[in-house]
Design brief:
About 30% of the residues lie in helices and about 20% in strands. The protein has about 400 residues and is of the alpha+beta class. A seven-stranded antiparallel β-sheet has the order 3-2-1-15-14-13-12, sandwiched between helices. The longest helix is centred in the last third of the chain and has 22 residues. It is globular, with a radius of gyration of 21 Å. It starts with 7 loop residues before the first helix and ends with a helix.
């Protein structure tokens, strides 16, 4: 039996956006010339998505809908490379930013299943440097805390965000030590919060850099190699990687920013803390990873995790925390339970949402950042439109 979803608010918000657009929000700009000219014969849903893209100011969008263990709809819109007029599809690669954390957490939990550590172990027992909040030098920081953003590492200060053309040439260790340990050449006191480890949620990207390095220490191989051999290749994600050098750049969406009526490209970039957000993949390939998490760690008879471990990752471990182990966990206004993650970076906006009640997932990748208030509202509407389509495809 189909449950009627509360999409009225979506429609009202969308009408507001369209009304604003009609009043001149979308004055004629060079950006409009990148849209495909053919409109006749398009489905109403496609026209709505393209309108949202104009409001967001994004050159391209790739999206898919998953029901149970099948991708039931997938499509690309716009140009992922404006200069060369390359059309987006479900196979176009995008940088997915913080959705990468779900993969990094999965890699670590595979090693948990190998009994290489306990979730409440002190990570200092596995690192070559002391990871301690200087405000609480005697309080251990555990694997569970890192995975749940409860380690007392603060939200990343501005000094954290350093971009490099291509892949970052600096190894994650010993940089982590110089950044996290007082007295290190890259250390700043803003790295640590005033909260005791375990007491409060702070979204710290560098914590997932530590997790990536722990995967290296425990497995004995580089983090990106571990993910390729134990997650990507087993799932058939042959075009997915944490490293730019390993993907087909000709099929990789160029990140853009919208300024003064035109799209300005960024060069493809990397950063030291790459386990926190540098995966490049397509919606078609990431759907395999999503399906595995929707089905107890299994995709197409390939096991990446045990069912008990998957349930643990999707559960809240600290009261009131919005984060499980590498996954955001939330309830919609109508009570539906979701897991997923979003991502954002320079010229990057991504989202993966899995509705647990009926094993429906939607994801989309965009090669731009939301532009202005209307852009942010439209970005939020993309997911709701995809969920609306998913529900109406099942009637």
């Amino acid at each position: 039996m189909k449950t009627i979803k509360p999409y009225a608010a979506v429609g009202v918000a969308f009408l507001f956006l369209i009304s604003s657009a009609a009043q001149g929000v979308h004055h004629q700009t060079a950006a409009q010339s990148i849209e495909k000219p053919e409109q006749e014969g398009k489905e109403p849903f496609d026209l709505l998505m393209e309108t949202l893209m104009k409001i967001i100011h994004t050159p391209s969008l790739s999206a898919c809908i998953i029901k149970e263990d099948d991708v039931v709809w997938a499509k690309g819109y716009g140009w992922y490379d404006i200069e060369n007029r390359k059309p987006s599809s479900e196979n176009t690669l995008y940088m997915i930013a913080s959705i990468s954390k779900t993969i990094t957490a999965t890699a670590l939990m595979q090693l948990y299943e190998e009994r290489m550590f306990g979730l409440d172990d002190d990570v200092n027992d596995y690192l070559p440097f002391p990871l301690r909040n200087p405000h609480y030098p005697d309080e251990p920081i555990t694997f569970r805390m890192l995975l749940s953003h409860r380690s007392s590492l603060a939200e990343d200060p501005p000094e954290f965000y350093q971009y490099f053309p291509g892949d970052c040439p600096i190894p994650i260790y010993p940089w982590l030590e110089t950044y996290l340990v007082p007295g290190g050449e890259n250390y700043t006191s803003e790295i640590w919060s005033d909260d005791r480890p375990g007491d409060a949620f702070h979204y710290a990207n560098v914590g997932f850099g530590v997790i990536g390095y722990l995967v290296e220490r425990l497995s004995g191989i580089p983090f990106d190699q571990y993910c390729r051999e134990h997650i990507f290749i087993p799932l058939g994600m042959f075009n997915t990687s944490f490293r730019l050098a390993d993907v087909d750049v000709d099929n990789l969406a160029i990140p853009y920013r919208f300024s003064l009526g035109r799209y300005i490209p960024y060069e493809h970039f990397g950063y030291i803390d790459y386990p926190a957000g540098s995966v490049r993949t397509s919606v078609s390939e990431l759907s395999r990873f999503a399906i595995a998490h929707m089905h107890g760690g299994v995709y197409n008879d390939v096991w990446v995790l045990d069912d008990e471990t998957v349930e643990m990752m999707h559960a809240i471990h600290y009261p009131g925390n919005p984060y499980g182990l590498g996954w955001v966990v939330w309830n919609a206004s109508n009570g539906d339970r979701f897991i997923g993650h979003t991502g954002g970076d320079r010229g990057v906006t991504t989202s993966l949402s899995i509705r647990l009640s009926d094993n429906v997932a939607v994801m989309y990748f965009i090669n731009a950042s939301p532009h202005g208030l209307l852009g942010v509202l439209a970005w939020k509407l993309v997911e709701n439109m995809l969920l609306w389509k998913a529900d109406h495809m099942m009637t």
